[in-house]
Fold this protein.
Amino acid sequence: MASTITAADLTVTVTEAITLNGYDQGSKNTKTIGSIGEVYKRILTITTNEATIVTMSGAVASAGHFNDSFVRYMRFTNLDDTNFLTLTFTNDDNDEVAIKLDAGNSFMWFADNSGGMVDVFNATQNADAASDTALGSITNIQADANTGNCDLEVFIASV
């Protein structure tokens, strides 16, 4: 069966709107990502027990599992109005980086324009991390809530 889906451009716009002392200090930036043919959007209830919410490798294996070379954009939004949650990203070297996502906040990750999530981060504890160029591919993303359940919206776009 041939696909009937036609790839399209994903447009992500970040707008800051603020006027200070009568002057517009806001900004608007737009990024267009071409050839998106697959999107994943889901709202998950995150508990205080860390759980894997996304996995990646060189091929799609199951639901919630993505081909890391095809993913171009990810957004995680904490829909809770009180509690924070933590997102933990792990690469193929088992390096980890944790992001605190406060109530109502979003975290966006734009992948490499042509290579996706392959070789996109290094969480080395080197004193001079900028000189360490050995980057790893994201293999999984975990989430846990700090004190009470939080709803988390996940949006992932792939070519």
